[in-house]
């Protein structure tokens, strides 16, 4: 681990950013070039003291999870992320098998979305980023571990919770779309990839998945229009706009209601309600 080089690199990348890159207000007079250390630490979900020690070349070796969080917070490119991993003495993440480093281009757009549900997902259905409205509407899946990271796993192994978000008459279509999307990922990444391992696991766990998998359907799984169900607010109709990275490994999903509609009002209420649930006595 090269602490000095890593500290210099982190400081340079921090100073190259501006508050608006993270969706923050520029504020009045700022004595610090670029972002403040506490702003980077908050974006990476770590203490300011810990981040400061890394910049000052006196911190411990950060874990791969910490490095991943720093790469997202500092809006690093994939090449810059790999460089950071090497400076920290860790193996560089597999670019092909995992796509959990969110592309800076998507992060910049995502950071400016706060009044409508938005999330960034990988080609395997992992939720990489989501704003508060998306978490309130779809559930908070950022940071999930193991197979729980993947929408296909939750859909077929835990249907009682995952499928409740969709109307009953739309669930068969959702099942087929999820399977077709996973087969497309296996086609790109190969049967020995995480995508292939996920498909094999699901074939052994879900008869429904196994039957759909045999249909050999391949397709992108995003619909232009969705009806989602919230436990308190009921059905919410939204249009789904999708922005892909160039390699289509990640997608930014923006869920927008029709202007001046009942759904738009429900999204406003959702912003107040958040992830809390009403209870009865």
Automatic annotation (TrEMBL):
InterPro entries: Cro/C1-type_HTH (IPR001387), Lambda_DNA-bd_dom_sf (IPR010982), MLTR_LBD (IPR041413)
Protein species of origin: Microbacterium algihabitans
Protein name: Helix-turn-helix transcriptional regulator
Pfam families on file: HTH_31, MLTR_LBD
Start and end residues of each HTH cro/C1-type domain: 33-81
SMART domains with a match to the protein in the record: HTH_XRE (SM00530)
């Amino acid at each position: 681990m090269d602490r000095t080089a890593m500290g210099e690199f982190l400081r340079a990348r921090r100073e190259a950013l501006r508050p608006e890159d993270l969706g923050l207000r520029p504020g009045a007079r700022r004595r610090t070039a670029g972002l403040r250390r506490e702003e980077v630490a908050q974006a990476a979900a770590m203490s300011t003291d810990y981040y400061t020690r890394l910049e000052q070349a006196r911190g411990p070796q950060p874990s791969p999870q910490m490095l991943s969080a720093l790469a997202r917070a500092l809006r690093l490119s994939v090449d810059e992320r790999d460089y950071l991993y090497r400076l920290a003495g860790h193996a560089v993440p597999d670019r092909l098998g995992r796509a959990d480093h969110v592309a800076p281009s998507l992060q910049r757009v995502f950071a400016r979305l706060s009044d409508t549900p938005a999330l960034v997902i990988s080609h395997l259905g992992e939720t990489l980023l989501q704003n508060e409205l998306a978490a309130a509407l779809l559930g908070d899946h950022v940071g999930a571990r193991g197979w729980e990271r993947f929408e296909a796993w939750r859909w077929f192994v835990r249907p009682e919770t995952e499928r409740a978000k969709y109307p009953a008459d739309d669930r068969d279509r959702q099942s087929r779309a999820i399977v077709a999307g996973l087969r497309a990922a296996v086609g790109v990444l190969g049967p020995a990839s995480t995508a292939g391992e996920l498909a094999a696991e699901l074939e052994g766990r879900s008869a429904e998945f196994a039957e759909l998998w045999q249909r050999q359907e391949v397709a992108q799984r995003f619909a232009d229009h969705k009806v989602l169900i919230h436990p308190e607010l009921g059905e919410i109709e939204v249009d789904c706009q999708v922005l892909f990275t160039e390699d289509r490994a990640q997608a930014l999903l923006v869920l927008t209601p029709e202007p001046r509609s009942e759904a738009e009002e429900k999204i406003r209420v959702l912003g107040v309600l958040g992830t809390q649930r009403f209870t009865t006595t």
